[in-house]
Amino acid sequence: MSRTAYRALFTAPLLAGALLLSACGGDDETAATPPAVVATTAATTPAATSTTPATSPDAATTPVDATTPSKTKADDAAASATSPAAAAETAPAAATPTATPEPKTPVTASGEATQNKVLQVLTAVETCFAGTETYRDCDGPTSLKDYGVKLVVSKRPKPGEVAVTNSSRSTFKIIGTDKGGVRWILAKNRSGDVSRKCKLADGKRCNPATW
């Protein structure tokens, strides 16, 4: 057999197999996709889009005024410092005028002596009342002469004098005037309370008003 016939005999089965494979459509893994199919697929597949918006709606719709400066804490502090309320708080309190204290009434030696006389008369009046059960019978010079006190009948005794006035069954008033014209008054009310008052010659109260 010649070399040419040998080659024809060897390659004939290979060519027959290739033709059969081509007639059946070839291998699925190696077959190329027709151009028409590729075009159709590309036309029907939507382009991939991002589901996440680039910016938020507020950022996209809210305009930013580049000419308006942003407020800072320093600006707020300056504004509050210039407000009327802040000015009222920081303004110094107006000085409250201090009232001048009223001078105390000096008690002279004559005043002390008159106070002692009034207290002596008080003892005499109460002693008299123990026997009479009324102060009406214990308010005159004669009714108290046995008790060692000297009285005058007057509602405004002169300096150095002592008088008993406004006497009733349960009340009385003893008034003694010192040489300076100050009146030292001791009174008993219906409740049995005893009070002491002091008045100057012009009728004003002493300081303190009691003694």
Count of alpha/pi helices: 6
Strand content: 5-15%
Count of distinct strands? 4
Q: Cα-atom Rg, whole angstroms?
A: 65 Å
Helix fraction, binned, reads 25-40%
Largest sheet: 4 strands, antiparallel
Global morphology = rod-shaped
Poorly predicted runs = 26-64
Kindly report how far apart the N and C termini lie. Answer: 170 Å
Rounded mean pLDDT score: 75
The secondary-structure element order is HHHHHHEEEE
Characterization of the model:
By secondary structure, this protein is an alpha+beta fold. It has 6 helices and 4 strands; from the N terminus they run H-H-H-H-H-H-E-E-E-E. It has helices at 3-23, 35-44, 57-61, 73-82, 84-90, 109-132; strands at 162-165, 172-177, 183-188, 194-199. Strands 1-2-3-4 form a 4-stranded antiparallel beta sheet, covered by helices on one side. Mean pLDDT is 75; it is low at 26-64.
